[in-house]
Amino acid sequence: MDAIGVLMTCPMFAYLEQELEKRFKLYRFWDFPSQRQFFKSHSGSIRAVVGNTKLGADSALIDALPRLEIVASYSVGLDKIDLGKYEEKGIRVTNTPEVLTDDVADIAIALMLGVLRKFCGCDAFVRGGKWKGGDFGFTTKFSGKSIGIVGLGRIGSAIAKRAEAFNCPISYYSRSEKPHVHYKYYPNPVALARHCRILVVACALTEETRHIIGREVMDALGPEGVLINVGRGAHVDEPALISALLEGRLGGAGLDVFENEPEVAEELLRMDNVVLLPHVGSDTVETCEAMADLVVANLEAHFTGKPLLTPVV
Amino acid sequence: MASHAQNDGAPSPLHRRSPPRVLLLRKPHHFSLINRPLPDNFHFLKPWESPLPFDDFLSSPDARAAEAILTYGGAPVTADMLRRLPEARLVVTASAGLNHIDLAECRRRGIAIACSGDAYTDAVADLAVGLLIDVLRKLSAGDRYLRRGLWSSEGEFALGSKLGGKRVGIVGLGRIGLEVAKRLEAFGCAISYQSRKKKPYVSYAFYSNVYELATNCDALVICCGLTEETHHMINREVLLALGKEGVIVNVARGSIIDEKEMVQLLVQGELGGAGLDVFENEPSVPEELLALDNVVLSPHTAVYTPETLSDLCDLVVGNLEAFFSNKPLLSPVLYERTGCSAGIGSVTTTKPDSVGFT
């Protein structure tokens, strides 16, 4: 199989590169100074693309690769992938669902605990030698706080399961009410925000969910409310979030994603009622390896005529 | 229940007698922090308001009439104190720990003890879980990385370690240990524990000693009380058994861990990480820890949330009122039938309707 050309869009995980190289002819897109030159020389060899949430396979890329058969995304999110175009051209698409669900749910809970119990602030307090000058002061109890989940898919459900162990009442908003689910359903995010203390975004990014969390939702969440985002930066109207936090209309926020990564607004960097993470939702050694294995397995299946493991298209 | 000195028949409800005298060993900061006034159906003796030094205050007629003592972790109730307070029949401690109370002397004198019951349980369990996740998933370190601008300049942050599938050993499966276990199970952790005795009705794997527990776990969470037996129980051998990737979380008392050894092992890379809310010599924290990225440090804040202190104050008042109305204490400390070991006694704390869990 090592005659098969696989294009990797950007650096993702050294282990993934190694595993791909063992089986295919791997082209690292970032190694080529000129994209045009690359396409001129190699576009005929590329039969697969491995993309991720930073750099997926968009329209332009699809058009430049006439022999492209499959795109295996090293992510579960598909917002950087032009799905319609793939279907049109008969190109297969796979992602990495399930394997990262636990990690992302864990980070959501970590962010909730972090914002309420001020782990980062407490740690900085001790490291800065301030404990000798007096006690830290109050933080807010997490157990028992009401949690509203936007998007009750795999990740949303995993978040709910963890939060229940802390005796947190759970409610949710989803495109439609889920049968067989015992959490309270609200028909829109504003209503959900009005009835919970912590709101967590765990849905996919689509045209409908872009800026699903705007000023109205934040005001409904309120001065004691906390917003957690483990979805995509574009789920949240970031300027509206910043003013809500600065004006005290929203109590706090825990964010793993931002509209313009890796850039994060100065104002957020100065706040002590927020926890900010550099998009680490699925960034554990165990999960990255599992995701990489899944990408490789999907490609192998495709090129040996077997059924794809986790196809999207 | 201790017998009521004033009558042999019907109990004397609180409102029909003069307000019982309660000796406060320290300023009741749990009440003042949440602006809660002390209940006015008791007469609180406040040694710090007296011109007399504490020792002389104890000998004063006022103090000698004290029927109850209200204390906090760190304000000891000694045998000598109890001898000088012949009317004292109740000790209420606003702490989960009991290592500051001479339990053997209390037992000898038939003095009832009330502790913090379940008031602290959730808050401490939450903190323990939070510290473990923070260490494994590098929450505080990631936030620091981002705020320093390193995400833009250096690129992707380091990978963390998955919580699910980790074998977590709980040292001391009391109220707090059980709640920590329940939470971690929801994250897919495999729970085992060490305790003085195996617990009936509990399905987690039991180890009778911490060394074996550490050998078979990826992380240890310390949830036991500080006693003579548990002092420095987590020593170099135990930490080495936990291993290079091992994580230790302590929300109990600093001196359950041999801190010097732990610091050395962390610095040398023989121990993977630590999440610590307590230290041997608070508020001093070993310098070396301040420079490590694989530790998360917390200034003994486990119980300091307004909700928790409010529950605690309710419980303190509830216990005082119950005792002096001849009703069962809300959160009594019971003496083990097997008797006390030398020095500090071994005790069970239990809710009145629970079944012998410690």
TrEMBL record, chain A:
GO molecular function, one term: glyoxylate reductase (NADPH) activity
Superkingdom of the organism of origin: Eukaryota
Gene Ontology terms: cellular component: cytosol
Location of the D-isomer specific 2-hydroxyacid dehydrogenase catalytic domain: 17-312
UniProt keyword Zinc, yes or no: no
Alphabetic keyword roster: Glycolate pathway, NAD, NADP, Oxidoreductase, Photorespiration
InterPro entries reported in the protein's UniProt record: D-isomer_2-hydroxyacid_DH (IPR050223), D-isomer_2_OHA_DH_cat_dom (IPR006139), D-isomer_DH_CS1 (IPR029752), D-isomer_DH_NAD-bd (IPR006140), NAD(P)-bd_dom_sf (IPR036291)
Record-given protein name: Glyoxylate/hydroxypyruvate/pyruvate reductase 2KGR-like
Residue ranges occupied by any D-isomer specific 2-hydroxyacid dehydrogenase NAD-binding domain in the UniProt entry: 109-281
One Gene Ontology term from the biological process aspect of the record: oxidative photosynthetic carbon pathway
Record's keyword annotation contains Isomerase: no
Family: Belongs to the D-isomer specific 2-hydroxyacid dehydrogenase family. GyaR subfamily.
Annotated gene: LOC115737980
A Pfam family this chain is assigned to: 2-Hacid_dh_C
Species of the source: Rhodamnia argentea
UniProtKB/TrEMBL annotation, chain B:
Keyword annotations: Oxidoreductase
Organism: Rhodamnia argentea
Family statement: Belongs to the D-isomer specific 2-hydroxyacid dehydrogenase family.
Sequence ranges assigned to domain D-isomer specific 2-hydroxyacid dehydrogenase NAD-binding in this UniProt record: 129-302
SUPFAM superfamilies assigned: Formate/glycerate dehydrogenase catalytic domain-like, NAD(P)-binding Rossmann-fold domains
Annotated InterPro entries: D-isomer_2-hydroxyacid_DH, D-isomer_2_OHA_DH_cat_dom, D-isomer_DH_NAD-bd, NAD(P)-bd_dom_sf
Family matches, as PANTHER family: 2-HYDROXYACID DEHYDROGENASE-RELATED, D-ISOMER SPECIFIC 2-HYDROXYACID DEHYDROGENASE FAMILY PROTEIN-RELATED
Record keyword Acyltransferase present: no
Domain D-isomer specific 2-hydroxyacid dehydrogenase catalytic, first and last residues per copy: 63-333
Keyword DNA damage in record: no
Full protein name: Glyoxylate/hydroxypyruvate reductase HPR3-like
